[in-house]
UniProtKB/TrEMBL annotation:
GO terms for cellular component: basolateral plasma membrane. The gene is SLC16A2. This is Monocarboxylate transporter 10. It is a multi-pass membrane protein. Keywords: Cell membrane, Membrane, Transmembrane, Transmembrane helix. The keyword Membrane applies. Belongs to the major facilitator superfamily. Monocarboxylate porter (TC 2.A.1.13) family. The keyword DNA damage does not apply. InterPro entries: MFS, MFS_trans_sf, Proton-linked_MCT. Sodium- and proton-independent thyroid hormones and aromatic acids transporter. Mediates both uptake and efflux of 3,5,3'-triiodothyronine (T3) and 3,5,3',5'-tetraiodothyronine (T4) with high affinity, suggesting a role in the homeostasis of thyroid hormone levels. Plays an important role in homeostasis of aromatic amino acids. GO terms for molecular function: L-phenylalanine transmembrane transporter activity; L-tryptophan transmembrane transporter activity; L-tyrosine transmembrane transporter activity; thyroid hormone transmembrane transporter activity. Pfam families: MFS_1 (PF07690). It catalyses: 3,3',5-triiodo-L-thyronine(out) = 3,3',5-triiodo-L-thyronine(in); L-tyrosine(in) = L-tyrosine(out); L-thyroxine(out) = L-thyroxine(in); L-phenylalanine(in) = L-phenylalanine(out). The chain crosses the membrane at residues 59-76, 83-101, 113-136, 143-165, 171-191, 240-256, 276-294, 306-325, 331-355, 367-385, 397-419. It comes from Dromaius novaehollandiae.
């Protein structure tokens, strides 16, 4: 599938700049990459006109780049622990820069699946995840508020960039638009160098000592090296396993409204000139949700923060199911306002919960494995919705399908604080039994006097 100069819709790149600009400090980054890479994917689906299978193909464009961001996260966590946040982020920005720049020299959509979807997506993953981890090096008590502030910066770009890119795309064309976006990513290479890690890297001296003192076979040594780099200790925590499974379940329908909502509006309500209103509403309320949820999260002790994610997923699923019930464009606007709030609450509170579950030393691995588990369902959700649209001839079933996984995932997440409280109660009981056993085993030093002296 090829497009002439300027024919391929500029909206395809509307979410690219949202991940390229980063302020010159790790404390004030541009925000959450997943929250910035979604807004305009549906715009691509709305502009491309092709065969009946086109909805499925369109959905893969944004979903592939989005999936690579999450699929590479476990590998990114290893590099973050080994070479640090600064080097990892700068290297990822360089890879993403090459992907964007090379996309400007081709007109083939299939080639851009690699240059943009894979190369740029992989580089964005390396540039994004260290920005989550580095905040935990500087802040502890107000980590939720800090995440809300820095993540809210992306919403400013979500509101303004659609108009900027639309103007630039019409003026200079597709290839030069790619080059402009690559310039932003080139700047991010230098801005990533401002990261200054404070916490020490994970210590592996225990494993190294064991390797030196104990003779092992080649297979055992290889397995030991794999365990050193792929730290699976976070999965020993039952609460983390439940939390990761719940989020992976919920995100199966998470991206569907962002990918298909605009084309649904154009198809149902014949609104092709006011679709920018939806992007503005999503960006504005998402920024508000990130600021509010960060402050609220700091006021909620311990793992009870997860209830914010539970509420956001439950509301997200309900709003997805309400989209086919809208009888006017105004109703869709109201739903977009709530969708933005759900996005803000879910995105901001994710890193603080990871720090609560596993601690700051293993937070990088916890976030990386979580995003890796999210890769497959998040990538598969929009194409499945596009297939349902092609099969049934409308998006009604697609949005009903999108509403079920967030509700199920929210119910699973609600169990995590309960399991945590049960584990703490069990630990207290076990410690109490141990103290009783120690007291009963203590010898008595006072002896009764002999019978003759009585």
């Amino acid at each position: 599938m090829r497009f002439a100069r300027g024919e391929f819709p500029v909206c395809y790149f509307r979410h690219v700049v949202k991940v390229t600009f980063k302020p010159p400090s790790p404390r004030v980054r541009a925000g959450s990459l997943p929250g910035r890479q979604r807004m305009s994917c549906g715009k691509l689906a709305a502009r491309l006109r092709c065969s009946r299978k086109c909805a499925l193909q369109q959905a893969w464009v944004g979903a592939l780049a989005m999936g690579m961001v999450f699929f590479c996260s476990p590998i990114v966590s290893i590099f973050t622990d080994r070479i640090g946040c600064r080097t990892t982020a700068a290297s990822g920005a360089a890879i993403a820069f090459i992907g964007l720049l090379s996309s400007s020299f081709t007109k083939s959509l299939e080639v851009r699946y690699f240059t943009y979807g894979i190369l740029f997506g992989c580089g964005s993953s390396f540039a994004f995840q260290p920005s989550l981890v580095i905040l935990g090096h500087y802040f502890k008590r107000r980590l939720g508020l800090v995440n809300g502030i820095v993540a809210g910066g992306s919403c400013l770009f979500s509101i303004s960039l659609p108009f900027f890119l639309k103007t630039v795309g019409k003026a200079i064309g597709l290839a030069h638009t790619f080059q402009v976006l690559s310039a932003f990513m080139f700047i991010q290479i230098f801005l990533s160098l401002t990261y200054r890690p404070v916490l020490p890297p994970p210590c592996d001296s225990q494993h190294e000592g064991q390797d030196k003192t104990v003779s092992r076979s080649v297979q055992q040594q290889c397995w030991s090296q794999m365990r050193k780099y792929f730290n699976l200790r976070v999965f020993r925590r039952k609460t983390y396993r439940i939390w990761a499974f719940g989020i992976a379940t919920a995100v199966l329908g998470y991206l569907v409204p962002y990918m298909h909502l605009i084309k649904y509006v154009e198809k149902e309500f014949k609104e092709d000139k006011k679709d920018w209103v939806l992007l503005v509403c999503l960006g504005a309320t998402s920024g508000l949700g990130r600021l509010v949820s960060g402050r609220i999260g700091d006021c909620i002790p311990g793992l009870k923060k997860i209830y914010l994610q539970v509420a956001s997923f439950m509301l997200l699923g309900l709003m997805c199911m309400m989209i086919p019930q809208c009888r006017g464009f105004e109703g869709v606007i109201v739903i977009c306002l709530f969708l933005g709030l759900c996005d803000g609450f879910f995105t901001t509170i994710m890193a603080p919960i990871a720090f609560e579950l596993v601690g700051p030393m293993q937070a990088s691995q916890a976030i990386g494995y979580l995003m890796g588990l999210m890769a497959v369902p998040m990538t598969a959700g929009p194409p499945i919705a596009g297939y349902l649209n092609d099969y049934f001839g409308n998006y009604h079933v697609s949005f009903y399908f999108a509403g079920v996984p967030p509700i199920v995932g929210g119910l699973v997440l609600a169990v995590v604080p309960l399991v945590h409280q049960r584990m703490l109660k069990k630990q207290r009981l076990d410690s109490g039994k141990d103290k009783m056993l120690v007291s009963t085993r203590t010898p008595r030093h006072t002896l009764l006097p002999p019978a003759s002296s009585r």
